[in-house]
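=== RUN LOG ===
request id: a7f3
mode: sequence -> structure
chains: 1
length: 120
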Amino acid sequence: MHLIARDDVRPFAGDDGAVVRELASPRNSSLTRHSLAEIRHPPGTASQEHFHTEAEEVYFVLDGQGGIRVNGETHAIGPGDVVVIAPGERHKVWQAGEVDLVLLVTCVPAYSVEEVVFTE
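=== RESULT ===
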């Protein structure tokens, strides 16, 4: 077992303005195959459109409102929504409204910048 306190994980700023906490991954825990991160999009921020060559991703919306575009199809997202993204699916997420859009994001295999392809 490996217990990690969220507040003990140092957040970092992504290139897109998101605040990321890599909660559990091969880089900071005993995991070998997947990763879990909290991604917080402050007002006015959005990810760059991209896809993963290997990873399956699941977004669970914890708080806030936003939008997501997957393969050109756009949807509003809010608390309790789950978005499943397969390898190769182009996707982009953005914050909408007054409060941060907060996502819990899993990747299998674990997130690796080497398998991300940016399309914008």
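=== NOTES ===
The radius of gyration is 14 Å.
The chain has a mean pLDDT of 96.
=== END ===
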